[in-house]
Design a protein that fits this description.
Layout lengths: L1 E3 L4 E3 L6 H11 L3 E2 L1 E6 L5 E6 L2 E6 L2 E5 L12 H9 L1 E6 L5 H6 L10 H5 L3 E2 L8 E2 L4 E13 L6 E13 L4 E2 L2 E2 L1 H4 L3 E2 L5 E2 L13
Antiparallel strand pairs: 1-2, 3-15, 4-5, 4-8, 6-7, 7-12, 8-11, 9-10, 11-12, 13-14, 15-16
The structure holds flavin mononucleotide.
Length: 211
């Protein structure tokens, strides 16, 4: 099951416990940027939660993807997923160091129907195109509509992939320079394993090889 070589530990993921797969995935795939996702139920209750299983999937069209895991042994959907299934609209914000503490507050497992804007103190502002609110404190805000949903696995550790097409993007002018986003000014944070988070750290440049 676990084959130990002199310097490497080699593991077949399907032969270990789900909790251990979680630990090695979240400990290895680091740093993960944190999407702070705003959604709205069809009853009009806002929801806000962080998701670090998150990346950009394409830029023509501009597609972001995030993955709410199924919890309670894979039987229950997170509120964000419920709202995405209801109306497919969200606003994805890049979480910055200044936003970290409040973003962490939004990650509590509050019951469906609780407004995490009120609980965390983030300020809701209207979006241009979608119904969910934007987070005023976020320097980068992507209004999005569901492009494609892909269910992944079943049981503990399974998830939904929500591919979201960005229909409007908003940038604090301090971070925006002719479509380039100033990393140091944005000051994004990341998720590592467990309770650990990361800061941006040193930035360096490498030229691409000429082939
Ligand atoms: C920084 C951070 C990143 C997280 N990333 C994810 C993730 O990618 N997928 C996930 O299912 N839960 C993730 N969580 C946990 C959810 O945010 C948490 O379960 C939250 O309560 C879900 O809220 P909701 O039910 O209102 O959508 C993360 C939590 C934190 C603090």
């Amino acid at each position: 099951m676990i084959k130990k070589q002199p310097t490497m530990i080699s593991i077949s993921p399907d032969q270990i416990q789900a909790q251990d797969r979680y630990k090695l995935a979240t400990g290895s795939v680091i740093p993960r940027p944190i999407a702070l996702v705003s959604t709205l139920s069809n009853e009009g209750v806002p929801n806000l939660s962080p998701y670090s299983f998150f990346t950009v999937a394409a830029y023509s069209p501009l597609i972001l993807v995030f993955f709410p895991l199924h919890f309670k042994k894979g039987e229950e959907l997170k509120d964000t997923a419920k709202n995405m299934f209801q109306n497919g609209e969200c606003v994805i914000h890049i979480t910055t160091e200044e936003m970290a503490e409040k973003a962490n507050v939004t990650s509590g497992l509050y019951e469906y129907g609780k407004n995490e804007f009120e609980i965390s103190g983030f300020t809701p502002i209207p979006s241009d195109i979608v119904k969910p609110f934007r987070v005023k404190e976020a320097p980068v805000q992507f209004e999005g509509k569901l492009y494609k949903h892909v269910p992944i696995g079943d049981g503990l550790g399974s998830s939904d992939a929500f591919f979201v097409e960005v229909v409007r993007a908003h940038f604090d002018e301090a971070v925006f320079d002719d479509f380039k986003v100033k990393a140091k000014v944005l000051n994004p944070i990341s998720r590592l394993a467990g309770m650990s988070w990361g800061k941006l750290g040193d930035v360096f440049e490498l030229m691409r090889p000429e082939v």
